[in-house]
Amino acid sequence: MVETPGLPLAGLRIVELGHYIAAPFATRLLADLGAEVIKVEPPEGDPVRGWGSAVDGNAVWFSVHGRNKLSVTLDLKAPADREKLATLCARADGLVENFRPGYLERIGLGPAVLHAANTRLVIARISGYGQDGPYRDKPAFGAIGEAMGGLRHLTANPGQVDFPPPRCGVSISDDLAGMYAALALVSACWGIKGDPDARGRIIDVDLVSSVFSLSEGMLPEYGLFGWVRQPQGAAIKTAAPTNTYPCADGKWLCIAGNSDLIFRRLMTAIGAPAMAAEPRFATNTLRCENVAELDAAIAAWTRTRPAAQAEAVLEAAEVPCSRLYDIADCAADPHFRARSLVMEVEDPLLGRVLHPAAPFRFDGIPPEAMVRWTGPKAGAHNAQVFGDTP
């Protein structure tokens, strides 16, 4: 293990009682920022170790999911192991958990017990629906957060009734809840810093609320006017032309040409400067009213070129655009590589493997230095943390 000096959360100790995605994602962010994260797993390991592809039985995803964390194993049904957990929490700054509400209380490790051991402990609790309310005891996974939080309604294509609205392809509600939990935990730790009399806080984050928080102006619009935002497909109603267009090689090109100046550059680049000069396209409001004609003209042009070629033409004209990248495109892109967004790291369990960089960087600390080690085997740090053999 390698420590990186200068990371902002160095010295912060966090205990993770996380499984699957939301809590482990929160603590991965904290660990990337320098916190000491002790991941407590059941003896058989986090269930996510059994997801996806593997090398010699070691889950590839866990290389990232568990990076920069210390892994210990405890059986929380055993009194001796519950005592070990309480001892860990007694010397920690924070705890992140994502069990169903009431589970910790049922096994004798609720906030009252943990705060008796450490009055300054910040406890971040992540669940499907929150720690109270009529739905608190219902089971939930990330897809349910998307559905009830209002996001899945918006991911459909307008008028498409034969297929269900698709999910975005990643566990977005878990990731959002994890980000919010990490932010709230650090905020709470800051709030008690330097005050010897301050007491720890309990943070309540849930999947549904995390997705719902992205609703922008939809709720006040509904309250004032009764408007219900409907699926927009690849476009939006408030800006034009902004859409995703088909190309000659079967790929797609996203183009955002909605400011007046960029719109004129776009239309000149596709050989239609006369359209840019027409009064009915003079402002964004007018373009939104006539967007179908604009989209048809742009699509007629993109269909004549491979996506990369069309992208190059528009980039030369300083029109914001991008091909729709898949993970292979990301891994090969020179900008991703130059900024170390994609980095090669050595994983003792997997060999040489690609990792995504942390989504933040600090002057004086190379992005590669923030990955101190990859996800370890379950219980790899039992001896180090508990002072005994696994």
From TrEMBL:
| PANTHER family xref list | L-CARNITINE COA-TRANSFERASE (PTHR48228:SF6), SUCCINYL-COA--D-CITRAMALATE COA-TRANSFERASE (PTHR48228)
One Pfam family for this entry, by name? CoA_transf_3
Q: Which keywords fit this entry according to its UniProt record?
A: Transferase
What is this protein's name?
A: CoA transferase
- What GO molecular functions are on record for this protein? transferase activity
Q: Extract the InterPro entries matched here.
A: CoA-transferase_III (IPR050509), CoA-Trfase_fam_III (IPR003673), CoA-Trfase_III_dom3_sf (IPR044855), CoA-Trfase_III_dom_1_sf (IPR023606)
Cell cycle recorded as keyword: no
Indicate yes or no for the key word Transferase: yes
Q: Which organism is it from?
A: Plastoroseomonas arctica
